[in-house]
């Protein structure tokens, strides 16, 4: 079941954690935004009485953090943060997951265009499942196998900027022993959406990081979409890690992402998908020969030696975006292929700034920074 994003922005799959550490008294009952609850059918909420958590209080967030061009809406136990510039650029983000569900940007024709692709569906137990958008998908582990951690729930730390120039929202996450700390900094500028991470390692051992910043860019159809600037880059056909946010069209019946990967790439088992680096160094590399690559064929490529910026052109919507990165050495590109129906829920391509073939190593006391930039060139003229 698919629903319009405008009618539902929340997912009950995320177990919320406290978002503020202030000593102020926080009311215990969150407010529900009726406009964000689906009109056609309400998704029943799972029983959570046995799960210890504190509900997110969006009234407190509104009082403490609004005033920089950011507003909050509470939906059950989740929260929507909306960043809006006066030039018309708008970004919405889910808390505590940190999933960016929408980026509406001003266009050359005077209107606004949605640049991200997000799908809302009903889960097995009637919960709402959100896939797509911009998400963080990281795993940290040590060589001895004694430590493994994937950050999920994010805490709102601070907001800077203003609605005239740019807005910056900073989220934080850390392990229970405070040894691994992350900052997730989302910046909305007049012509760009920037997603940056800063990671610190206070452990006595090196830590390996694998994963990506994963972005689903909406297009009219992969048939009309081209990647410009990848010529002479090396790549191998290898899928991204499994991610609850990855949106992938099924072959025939509705199946999970892991089953689809097995069908597309039978030579890779689940172990390789989860470990990323396991066995990946021996994959045969090819060289991209097309500088104006049409994305009509189904593909799942990890690129190395790729330019720091490349352009995605959608001839169907007469639109283009520039995608750039810092810190990461690899770029992931996924296309569901032209067999999908035009303007369907699978009309998108997926771009990830990644560490898949080669993990990023954080030595003790190291701080690493990386990010992705989605630039809207329609305001340059």
From TrEMBL:
Gene3D superfamilies of this UniProt entry? 2.70.98.10
Q: Output compositional bias ranges, type Polar residues.
A: 270-280
**Could you name the Gene Ontology cellular component terms for this entry?**
chloroplast; cytoplasm; membrane
Instruction: Output the GO biological process annotations, alphabetical, semicolon-separated.
Output: carbohydrate metabolic process; photosynthetic electron transport in photosystem I; positive regulation of gene expression
Q: Which GO terms describe its molecular function?
A: carbohydrate binding; glucose-6-phosphate 1-epimerase activity
| Region feature Disordered, mapped onto this chain | 269-289
Its name, as the record gives it, is: Protein NDH-DEPENDENT CYCLIC ELECTRON FLOW 5
Q: Which organism is it from?
A: Glycine max
